Amino acid sequence: QAVPAGSHVRLNLQTGAREAKLPDSNTENGDTREGKRRKRLGKVDVDSSSFTSQELKKALAKMKESEKAERKAHEEEVRKKFRPIEQLKEEFEKLNVKMETDYEIMVKLISTFNNSVSTLDEKVAALYDLEYYVHQV
């Protein structure tokens, strides 16, 4: 038997019967998770015969459109706050500052460690620095 969303369902251990209770009307609009979901979705008739496939497709398309709009708005907000890495690199080059990514630094440290010309102290320092970067990853 299907029960409406938000119903309280329990198993009576004495009789073995499953029981369902509709939520109280005063808790339905409260701050419960189900109440918030109902506020967001509104009252929906879940009887499958009440919706045609076209209506469902239109509703799904509207949901996708609103999701895309929200995603674009979020991306624009992020773009306003941050600059692209390429632009930052160009600005640092103008200031004669070389900016390296963690990957580039790790490659240098590995090559220092594998280099046969490096001294023992340089190899130990490279390993300590590598430990720091690998720990971040």
Automatic annotation (TrEMBL):
InterPro entries: Hsp70_NEF-Inhibitors (IPR050693). Residues 1-49 are annotated as: Disordered. GO terms for cellular component: endoplasmic reticulum. Keywords: Coiled coil, Endoplasmic reticulum, Protein transport, Transport. One of its GO terms (biological process) is protein transport. Residues 56-105 form a coiled coil. One of its GO terms (molecular function) is adenyl-nucleotide exchange factor activity. It comes from the Eukaryota. PANTHER family: NUCLEOTIDE EXCHANGE FACTOR SIL1, PROTEIN FOLDING REGULATOR. This is Nucleotide exchange factor SIL1. It comes from Colius striatus (Speckled mousebird).
